[in-house]
UniProtKB/TrEMBL annotation:
The chain crosses the membrane at residues 6-23, 30-52, 72-91, 96-114, 126-146, 158-180, 192-212, 224-248, 254-271. Keywords: Membrane, Transmembrane, Transmembrane helix. The keyword Protein biosynthesis does not apply. It comes from the Bacteria. The keyword Ribonucleoprotein does not apply. This is Uncharacterized protein.
Length: 279
């Protein structure tokens, strides 16, 4: 349990910090930016962590699969903690000195986790974290400007995709980690956990693009949008089962993902309308 305390403490502190941001700003813009930065973090993690094996986390929260346990650590550290700080920097218009301070702070936390043996590098280095965060924090300030003012079509679609992806990825992958409701076996990696999460990442990247495209089409009957979405998700799941990639382990698994697709269409539509409004 020693390992998990550090990650849970980090999660608690960042949750409190984000609550502080919401209280101070009293609008939904910080939430939209947080989801945008989580979506960006997921894409970065998919590349360097899931596919390139940059590092491993050892929170010892999940016992059954070591890669799933590492995925939880990556979520706490990179897919939540970093986006919260990026949101803080952007919404309070902190200057480059603060970017350097927070980048150094995270490098220090990473160094501490290495010394505590609750995190390990493979080919990754501390310097990559430092310089990468400077860029990540700068991107957050750019995205925030897009959120608080009217966007062009490219800016709007990129924000919508990242926000949709952050929700879709979380809702798709977290049940797999904690409930083992399904796993994927495309055969890309020998480790079943890594293989499963890698395919799930590609799945969410594709379905997020689908949701964004669907809500921006002119549907005469809204019920048809939900019917097509739910039916297509069911068909895709059945196809993946038939070719041996998807292994559904719990009775509610496929109902959940069909229901999730319908919820994602609803949420994507809400975000699409929200982003279309000039603040």
């Amino acid at each position: 349990m020693h390992n998990s305390y550090w990650y849970l403490a980090l999660l608690l502190l960042d949750t409190l910090l984000f609550c502080f941001i919401l209280i101070k700003k009293r609008n939904m813009q910080p939430l939209l930016l947080l989801l945008t930065m989580i979506g960006l973090a997921y894409i970065i993690e998919t590349i360097i962590f899931n596919f390139l094996g940059s590092y491993d986390y050892h929170p010892k929260i999940i016992k059954h699969f070591s890669f799933y346990d590492s995925e939880v650590g990556a979520f706490v550290s990179n897919a939540f903690s970093l986006p919260v700080i990026a949101t803080l920097i952007a919404v309070f218009h902190l200057n480059w000195i603060w970017k350097i301070i927070f980048s150094g702070l995270f490098v220090g936390i990473e160094w501490l986790f290495l010394k505590l043996h609750i995190y390990e590098h493979h080919w990754w280095k501390l310097v990559y974290t430092g310089f990468g965060l400077l860029g990540y924090f700068s991107i957050a300030k750019m995205f925030y400007k897009w959120i608080i003012q009217p966007q062009n079509r490219f800016q709007h679609n990129l924000l919508l995709y990242l926000i949709t992806g952050s929700i879709s990825a979380s809702a798709h992958i977290l049940p797999m980690l904690f409930f083992l409701n399904r796993f994927y076996r495309p055969g890309w990696f020998e480790n079943i956990g890594r293989d499963s999460i890698a395919f799930a990442a590609i799945f969410y990247l594709c379905d997020s693009l689908f949701y964004c495209g669907m809500v921006q089409m002119n549907w005469k009957f809204k019920w048809a949008l939900y019917l097509v979405t739910g039916l297509l998700m069911f068909i895709v799941n059945q196809f993946l089962i038939s070719v041996g990639i998807l292994h559904s382990r719990i009775w509610w698994d496929q109902f959940y993902y069909v229901g999730l697709s319908l919820m994602m269409i609803l949420l994507t539509g809400i975000v699409d309308r929200r982003l279309s409004k000039a603040s």
